[in-house]
C-alpha cells in the first residue's frame, strides 16, 4: 500500500542526498513537505540570534524555490509541534511521517513524541540518518556500547566500520509527478507521487523576518540555502590543488576573507550533505599525487565533526559541566560584568574585541579566532565558565552546532580532550604574527584605525599625544585592558594545574596514549601506491593522530586541531 506522507524537515534543508525524503517519495502516493516553525520549542531548546534566524528563513525560501522547480512545494506551518502534527495528520489522512534521525537530546525526544503520536493516530514513522557520515549507534556498538573518547580510538573504530554510505541519488521532477494511470501502472512507477495541492503553498508560505519580529540587522555575508551552499562548494572544489594540500592550521585567523572553506553554516543547517562532500573529496584525493591527511585535511575536519557527534550522542549532560562524566569540575568565577565586556567586544584587547565584533556582525569567525576568544574567557584570562561562552557562540554563530560547540568549548577551556593546558594564547602576539599591520583590527574596530601599526594591538602603550593624533583616547573612546594578561594567565595556570592534579582520572578519560601530539606532522611522502583513496580504514595507518591540539603563539601554524570550516 502506498502511503500518504508528511515529510518533516528539521535540519536537512536540501534536496541532494536526502535519503529520508527519497524514501518517502518512493513509498507514497502523496508527500507533504513540511517545516513546523515551533518558536517556543526553538527558543527554549536553542539560542538563536537574529543572524541565524535570517539564515534559517533564507534556507527555507531556497528549499521552497527548489521544490517548486520540481513541481512540489514547502509548507511552513507555525505552531506547537505536536498539535500541528496531530491536526494535519487527521486533516490530510496521513499514514506515514518521515524525518531525519538526529542525535541532539531534544530532537530525540521530539522523534519519540512523534512515534507515540503515531501509535495513537495510526501512522507509521520512518527516520534515517542524513546529517552525519555515520549512524553514531553503529560506532557505539562497535566500541562496546560506549563512545570512543579519543580521536585515535575513534578512527580505529571507523577503520572497522568502513567507509560511510554513499550519497543517494538526486531528486527529479519525475519523483513528484502526479500519475493518472491505473493502480497497476502506479505500482510499477511507485517512485512518482503527487505533490500537495497548489493552494496550500500560499496558506503555509515561508514567513518574512518582519512577520517573526526579527530585527533587520546588517545581514551576514553568508546567505542561507542549498543553492548558495552548493555554489560555494563548487567554487572551492574547482581548485583541486588547494583541496588536496589543505592543512587547517595553516589557514589565517585574521584574514579579511575566509581562508578556510566557510561551508560550516551550510553543514550545520543541513543545506549541504556531509557525505556528498566527503566523497567529492575522496575523488580529488584519488587523483592527487600527494594530499594532506586527517586530522588537518578537509576530510579530517569532517571526521572531527563526526567524533564530537559520537561522543555527544552517548555522554550525559554533554553541554554542561555538572553531571558530565568526561568534563573536569572547575570552580569558575561568576562575573557578569566581565562576561558582558567579553561578549560586547569591550575587553580592551583589540585582537579579542575585533574577533567578537566580527562574530556579532557576520555570524562567523575563523576557528583559530574562536580559539583565541575562548581561551581568553576561560583558562587564559577571565576564568569564566566555558558554558557561558558556549551560550554566546550558540546565539551568534551561523554554524552553531550542539555537539561541536560544546565539544570545542570543553577542548579550549582544557576541561576535556585537550591536555596541553600550559599553552595559553597571548591576546597581543597571536594576532600580530599573521597580521602585523592590524588590517583586521582596523576593519572591525574603526575607532582604532588611525593608530600606527606598532600600537594597533596595544594602543594603551601609545603616548597621549599619539592617541590624540589617532583620534582615540584610551579609557574614553576605547577601554583600557580589563586584565593584566601576564598576571591573570600565570594565576589561572596554577589553578588549572591544581584542578588536573585533583581530578587526574577524569582528565585521563579523553587523553590519547601517543607521542607528544604537538610534534605531529602531516605525512606528505607516501608513495602513490599507498596514497589514501578516501578510505577511512587507511587513515589510521597513515596519520599520527592527536588527542587534542591547539595553537599557542604559533610561528608557522603547523599544528592540527578541530574547528569550523
TrEMBL record:
CC terms in the record's Gene Ontology section: cytoplasm; nucleus
Gene3D superfamilies: 1.25.40.80, DNA Cyclobutane Dipyrimidine Photolyase, subunit A, domain 3 (1.10.579.10), HUPs (3.40.50.620)
Pfam annotation, one family: FAD_binding_7
Coiled coil segments of this chain: none
Residues annotated to bind FAD: 260-264, 301-308, 399-401
Database matches in SUPFAM superfamilies: Cryptochrome/photolyase FAD-binding domain (SSF48173), Cryptochrome/photolyase, N-terminal domain (SSF52425)
Transmembrane annotation, as ranges: none
Any one GO BP annotation for this protein: negative regulation of DNA-templated transcription
Annotated site residues (Electron transfer via tryptophanyl radical) in this chain: 332, 386, 409
Composition-biased stretches (Basic and acidic residues): 518-532, 552-565
Keyword field: Chromophore, FAD, Flavoprotein
Cofactor or coenzyme needed: FAD
InterPro entries hit by this protein: Crypto/Photolyase_FAD-like_sf, Crypto/Photolyase_N_sf, Cryptochr/Photolyase_FAD-bd, Cryptochrome/DNA_photolyase_1, DNA_photolyase_N, Rossmann-like_a/b/a_fold
Cofactor, free-text remark: Binds 1 FAD per subunit.
Domain Photolyase/cryptochrome alpha/beta residues, every copy: 3-133
Residue ranges of the region described as Disordered: 508-565
PANTHER family: CRYPTOCHROME (PTHR11455), PHOTOLYASE_CRYPTOCHROME ALPHA_BETA DOMAIN-CONTAINING PROTEIN (PTHR11455:SF63)
Family: Belongs to the DNA photolyase class-1 family.
Name the record gives this protein: Photolyase/cryptochrome alpha/beta domain-containing protein
Taxonomic lineage of the native organism: Eukaryota, Metazoa, Chordata, Craniata, Vertebrata
